[in-house]
Design goal:
By secondary structure, this protein is an alpha/beta fold. It has two domains: 117 residues, Rossmann fold (3-Layer(aba) Sandwich), CATH 3.40.50; 143 residues, 3-Layer(aba) Sandwich (Rossmann fold). Helix content is 41%, strand content 13%. α5 packs antiparallel against α6 and α6 packs parallel to α11. The longest helix is centred in the middle third of the chain and has 25 residues.
């Protein structure tokens, strides 16, 4: 089987199921595992590489209103790869090639490849997508073992939270800063499992824009920032925008130095196997004395320590 992935999380799922050698094409954003970096890229972005967060948001809104895609398929490369299966998603037109474009492309490609859409809204849905891909590729045994291992890690976090966490901090988790977006989908669930209380939670619902006043009113004990598509360095640049907001210094999370910056490009915003890493990162940030660091993940950075130039992560 020749597989093309149109989503970084799908690429991670395919590889986690032991199908790396059958993966023949990926998107321009797929960068994990590192072995996929040299694969042909079948998409390109219309977002300028030097665009500000506000510019990106305005471009996204414009494209959604006009039903124009943010990402485009390279049909020449796609036709040359002759895929049997294209794995994509219909959850968010901002995050990938539009569903209609993918389906239209499949109709004209040689062999008319099957299109598999992944649309998880919760952590359990993510596990279901692993099984869905395995059913399409004949990897049921691998998926069963993978999901069992991931679920065991989740249950270990939940057990520690239930047995040892006495006080749940109030948490706000942002996935965009300019404008502000509060994370939805699976993130409120992760906060709960990790031993926090989501102040602005919209569990199982899409992420939503909110005014700064909503955060001030929520008075979070902890503020976590994992910007969609951005790594640590770019996120730190945008944190300066938050610091200019009225009342920033009065937030409990800021006063008590509990603002954490997380690599949102690889964690929280990719609904694949590393969503469990995201849970472990968050759990350690909220309760470092109870939850150990995520074994193979980039930890959350204490923003105040970064500003002070202290080489420290969570404390």
């Amino acid at each position: 089987m020749r597989i093309v992935s149109l989503l970084p999380s799908a690429t991670e799922i395919v590889c986690a199921l032991g199908l790396r050698e059958q993966l023949v094409g990926v998107t321009h954003e797929c960068d994990y595992p590192p072995s996929v970096l040299d694969l042909p890229k079948v998409t390109r972005t219309l977002i300028p590489h030097d665009a500000s967060s506000l510019d990106i948001d305005e471009l996204v809104r414009e494209r959604l209103q006009t039903h124009k895609a943010l990402y485009a398929l390279d049909m020449e490369i796609l036709a040359r790869l002759q895929p049997d299966l294209i794995v994509t998603q219909a959850l968010c037109d901002v995050c990938a090639v539009a569903e209609a474009e993918v389906n239209a492309a499949a109709q004209v490609l040689p062999g008319r490849p099957r299109v598999l859409n992944l649309e998880p809204m919760s952590l359990s849905d993510v596990f279901d997508t692993l099984k869905l891909v395995s059913q399409a590729t004949g990897r049921k045994a691998q998926a069963d073992a993978l999901v069992a291992g991931l679920q065991a890690r989740v249950q270990a976090v939940i057990a520690r939270t239930q047995q040892q966490v006495r006080v749940r901090p109030r948490v706000v988790h942002l996935e965009w800063i300019d404008p502000l977006f509060n994370a939805g989908h699976w993130t409120p669930e992760l906060i709960d499992y990790a031993g926090g209380e989501d102040c602005l939670g919209n569990k199982g619902q899409p992420s939503r824009s909110l005014p700064w006043s909503a955060i001030v009113e929520a008075q979070p004990d902890v503020l976590t920032v994992a910007l969609c598509g951005f790594g640590i360095e770019r996120t730190l640049e945008d944190m300066r925008i938050l610091e200019t907001r009225p009342g920033w210094g009065d937030l409990p999370a800021v006063r008590h130095e509990r603002v954490y910056v997380i690599d949102g490009h690889h964690y929280f915003n990719r609904p694949g196997p590393r969503l469990v890493d995201s849970l472990e990162i968050l759990a350690h940030a909220l309760h470092p004395g109870i939850h150990p660091p995520a074994p193979a993940a980039v930890p959350a950075l204490n923003y105040k320590h970064v500003v002070k130039g202290i080489a420290s992560t969570v404390s």
